[in-house]
Specification:
alpha+beta; elongated; Signal transduction histidine kinase subgroup 3 dimerisation and phosphoacceptor domain-containing protein; Heat Shock Protein 90; 2 domains; Sensor_HK_TwoCompSys; two-component regulatory system; transmembrane helix
């Protein structure tokens, strides 16, 4: 009888241990499934934010520039100018909201902004050529150069009568050189007005030990040039 009791107790203990093991395994599986679900939700949210920024942000940027140009051309019509001013302000608020929603989920890039510039300039009937003569860029360098392209194209449309634009990225002896050039510069006016963002570009690129300069050549082309050492990777 004692032997039989021992066997029963041993079997019961075995069943209990197996049950505990199965319970622990199920709990671990549940935690893993929840973690995978949370990652999937996070990825979906980030993807949505990127889509919002890329698709909606692009058209808001285009609408902002076109509205600003129309606002300037309506100088002789106070009523129309007032309505355009309100529309422009609304578009800017919407663009700010889009940037806020997608903040931290999307970073500017050279490739993204050069592609966006081609599409935007084409919508204005401007011929845009992009030339790239270097390999894959470090993310932070790509983001900085993307900012230069966006600022250059925005100011180009605001202050110039452009028919052609060339965006060129080259590399020589470890130095990346981005040139955003257009044929619509005016020699009677400075290429950039105060507060146009050029100082911000210089500050950002200086963080990568790079430089930014702007000039108008004798050929009538305005050039915004940024140079960054390739060694500054993430």
């Amino acid at each position: 009888m004692p032997h039989q009791l021992y066997v029963v107790v041993a079997i019961a203990a075995g069943i209990l241990l197996v049950s505990l093991g199965v319970t622990a395994a199920l709990a671990l599986r549940i935690r893993r499934l929840r973690a995978e679900r949370d990652r999937a939700v996070t990825l979906a949210q980030e993807e949505l934010a990127r889509d919002v920024h890329d698709i909606v942000g692009h058209w808001l940027w285009l609408a902002s520039i076109k509205s600003e140009l129309a606002y300037r051309r309506a100088a002789g019509d106070a009523r129309l100018r007032g309505e355009l001013g309100e529309a422009l302000q609304a578009v800017r608020h919407a663009a700010h909201a889009v940037r806020h929603v997608s903040k931290g989920n999307r970073q500017l890039s050279f490739q993204g902004e050069s592609t966006r510039a081609e599409a935007l300039l084409a919508s204005f009937g401007i011929d845009c050529t992009v030339r790239v003569e270097c390999s894959r860029l470090p993310r932070n360098v790509s983001a900085a150069l993307g900012t230069v392209i966006r600022e250059g194209v925005t100011n180009m449309l605001r202050h110039s009568a452009v028919s052609r634009c060339v965006i060129e990225l080259t590399e020589q002896e470890g130095l990346l050189r981005l040139a955003v050039a257009n044929d619509g510069a005016s020699r009677r006016e400075p290429p950039h007005s105060p507060g146009d963002g050029l100082d911000n570009l210089r500050h950002r690129v200086a963080g990568l030990s790079g430089t930014v300069r702007a000039s108008t050549g004798d050929d009538g082309w305005f050039r915004l040039i940024a140079e960054v050492p390739r060694k500054f990777s993430e």
